[in-house]
Task: inverse folding
């Protein structure tokens, strides 16, 4: 287990820098910080065999000392509240019950991140070039958005593919509907929050906003542009303003995405679970069997939405960790069933030389057999600190009150979600497995031939994917 890296950065160009939580950027597995196990009126996931709920589930739960709060009937799960200390024992004795699990609240975006912001007021000072490519009339495109070139999004746009008609669900901290780069592509009516104490979709954290812009910031002659600028975004808020969320919120968010016909679901989030279990600060024990149950349940839900038409993509994680054979921990959702897991690449010193390699594995990215594809997530050259525009090597996208540079596999995953939307415009009836196959066949085979621990099956290529 690596030691945690601490770093303080100070810059004063085009706005301020601030540090807050992101998906384990610069934070190893010892940054796992489970929040709570719902100690007041404890909440549980009651999981049945056979992926279906029995007809008398309400009565069985009541007899065991609990009350059904939410049903996920299509996957055989009920969210239950109970204060009776005998509830778990009683419920486990009910025929057909596979698991009774604590509905744990986890920090899905632990660690530190580095964010360099540009406000709306500062945006007017930036001007882009004008050429024949669709993105060049967005002021920030040529100036900052190297990642669009890295996946050859302009090649797909010039061929007529912008993600039109494809619905993409963003399971994250929310999206601000008023942002001018996101308002044209965000379906507010379908967007929703599963965070009961934040029953609105606005993003108070910034993470979901940045992810959403990478996927589908609009082609509106303003600001930035996304990989699939005509795709339809749906905000599904499963994390609160701290980046934390109940396990059940993520499960419900995935099922909701599938129910509304989202063809792509992006999860730029993740955490590690120790397979041997852990204990919450309030004394609640989550044992090895509970960990096995939680990972099984997440895999069950992802497999369900995948088999019912939703392509699921997730961040691989940012701990420079080898996902091959790490028997002590499991990274979720990156290592959960049919999830397509994405590692991060990025340039070094792009601000000095726009011809540098854009595909260098990011120093922080997880790697190994758990990686399926690579995409731009941004890189960091520590030799540049504290001087120079080091942030140009990170990914530029939308952010509350403007735009920002961020880095992480959280930024890599939405590039793949955007390319998947382009593929689905080109092949509207393609199944998730067919989308994955097209990504494989069109990806740039970097690193060693075939599957590579850093690039997986290759770095995604938008223009090749829609040929």
Result:
């Amino acid at each position: 287990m690596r030691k945690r890296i601490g770093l303080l950065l100070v810059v004063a160009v085009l706005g301020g820098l601030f540090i807050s939580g992101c998906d384990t950027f610069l934070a190893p597995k010892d940054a796992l910080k489970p929040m709570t196990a719902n100690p007041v009126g404890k909440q549980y996931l009651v999981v049945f065999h056979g992926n279906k709920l029995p007809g008398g589930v309400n009565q069985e739960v009541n007899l065991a000392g609990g009350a059904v709060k939410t049903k996920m009937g299509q996957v055989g799960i009920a969210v239950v509240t109970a204060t009776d200390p005998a509830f778990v024992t009683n419920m486990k004795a009910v025929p057909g019950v596979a698991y009774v699990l604590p509905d744990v609240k986890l920090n899905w975006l632990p660690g530190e991140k580095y964010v360099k912001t540009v406000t709306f007021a500062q945006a007017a000072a930036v001007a882009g070039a004008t050429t024949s490519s669709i993105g060049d009339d967005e002021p920030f495109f040529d100036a900052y958005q190297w990642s669009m070139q890295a996946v050859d999004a302009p090649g797909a746009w010039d061929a007529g593919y912008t993600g039109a008609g494809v619905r993409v669900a963003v399971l994250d901290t929310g999206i601000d509907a008023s942002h001018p780069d996101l308002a044209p592509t965000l379906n507010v009516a379908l967007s929703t929050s599963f965070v009961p104490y934040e029953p609105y979709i606005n993003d108070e954290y910034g993470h979901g906003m940045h992810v959403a812009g990478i996927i589908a910031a609009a082609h509106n002659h303003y600001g930035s542009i996304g990989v699939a600028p005509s795709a339809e975004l749906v905000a599904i808020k499963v994390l609160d303003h701290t980046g934390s969320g109940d396990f059940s919120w993520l499960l419900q968010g995935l099922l909701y995405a599938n129910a509304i016909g989202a063809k792509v679901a992006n999860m730029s989030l993740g955490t590690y679970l120790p397979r041997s279990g852990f204990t919450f600060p309030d004394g609640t024990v989550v044992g090895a069997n509970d960990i096995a149950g939680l990972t099984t349940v997440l895999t069950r839900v992802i497999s369900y939405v995948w088999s019912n038409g939703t392509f699921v993509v997730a961040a691989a994680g940012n701990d420079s960790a080898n996902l091959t054979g790490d028997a002590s921990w499991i990274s979720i959702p990156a290592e959960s069933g049919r999830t397509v897991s994405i590692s991060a690449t990025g340039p070094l010193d792009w601000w000095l030389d726009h011809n540098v390699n854009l595909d260098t594995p990011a120093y922080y990215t997880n790697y190994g057999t758990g990686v399926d594809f690579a995409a731009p997530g941004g890189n960091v050259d520590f030799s540049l600190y504290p001087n120079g525009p080091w942030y140009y090597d990170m990914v530029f996208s939308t952010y509350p009150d403007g735009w920002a540079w961020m880095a992480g596999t959280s930024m890599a995953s939405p590039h793949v979600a955007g390319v998947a939307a382009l593929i689905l415009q080109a092949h509207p009836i393609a199944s998730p497995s067919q989308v994955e196959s097209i990504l494989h066949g069109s990806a740039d085979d970097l690193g060693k031939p075939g599957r590579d621990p850093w690039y997986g099956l290759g770095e995604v290529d938008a223009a090749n994917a829609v040929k």
Q: What stands out?
A: DSSP finds twelve helices and 22 strands in the chain. The first strand starts at residue 17 and ends at 20. Residues 43-103 form a domain with the Alpha-Beta Plaits fold (CATH 3.30.70.80).
